[in-house]
Amino acid sequence: MTTESVGLLYMLTNAGPVVKFIMLLLLFFSIISWSIIFIKFRYVRTAFRDSAYFTEVFWQCRTLADAFSKAKALRSSPLARIFIAAYMEASRTENKENLAAKKNAGSTLQTMGSVNRTLNRAINVENRRLVQLVSFLATAGNTAPFIGLFGTVWGIMSTFQGIGLSGSASLAVVAPGISEALVATAAGLAVAIPSVIAYNYFNDRIRVLNSELQSFSSDLLNIIERDVFKKLEA
């Protein structure tokens, strides 16, 4: 047996059509998984960085209008985006209801209810953006080992069929076929392990971001409510 004959490329090129198909399928899973990992890692890292910066800037601003001008420059921050949505809704509702003229609690409640619904919608949109594509990592992590195992089982079946036809069960006859079959399992694990690690990592980071969105949303509602009451008392 030459060195070339035990090489990975040799085993792949000499594998059966079913094993080749499975290897191509696992290659597809691997490319998509790694693409998602790089895209989501960059997205989540930017979201955390810009949200931390926006939080710091937000609490330094004297008015919501100042914070709004700062938020417009941080479109990559989920916190900035939900703030923009809430601020625009509060401004629109205030103008519509003309609170300065009416000066009644009903208008205030209507404004706060509208802002609260807008915040909930904005948070849901941000959560959908954060979890987008992540589910594919779970699918790859759960199915790739089984796809690889299927390739292994099929390869071993083909090997034993070859042994039966050749009438020889020597190591030189059995080993190449078994090696080809086990490559499928190894490939499946190579796809599944990074996918599962990345899926757990992103889920953890998304939970943290979602918690920050909920906390910021509560603080922002209180601030907007105080701001509305100040305008009523003015």
Which keywords apply here?
single chain; 234 residues; mainly alpha
Describe this structure in words.
The chain is mainly alpha-helical and 234 residues long. The protein has one domain. It has helices at residues 8-13, 17-60, 64-71, 78-97, 99-102, 105-131, 134-166, 171-233. The longest helix has 63 residues, at 171-233. 29% of the residues are buried. The model has no long low-confidence stretch (mean pLDDT 84). It holds the Pfam family MotA_ExbB. One of its GO terms (cellular component) is plasma membrane. The chain crosses the membrane at residues 18-39, 130-157, 177-202. It comes from Desulfobacter hydrogenophilus.
The class by helix and strand makeup works out as mainly alpha
The tally of helices reads 8
Strand-residue proportion: under 5%
- Report the end-to-end length measured between terminal Cα atoms: 92 Å
Mean pLDDT: 84
Number of DSSP-assigned strands: 0
Helix content: over 70%
Order of helices and strands: HHHHHHHH
What is the total domain count?
1
User: What does the main sheet amount to?
Assistant: none
Which helices and strands appear, and what pairs or packs with what?
Layout: H1 8-13, H2 17-60, H3 64-71, H4 78-97, H5 99-102, H6 105-131, H7 134-166, H8 171-233
Quick synopsis:
With 234 residues, the chain is mainly α. It has eight helices and no strands.
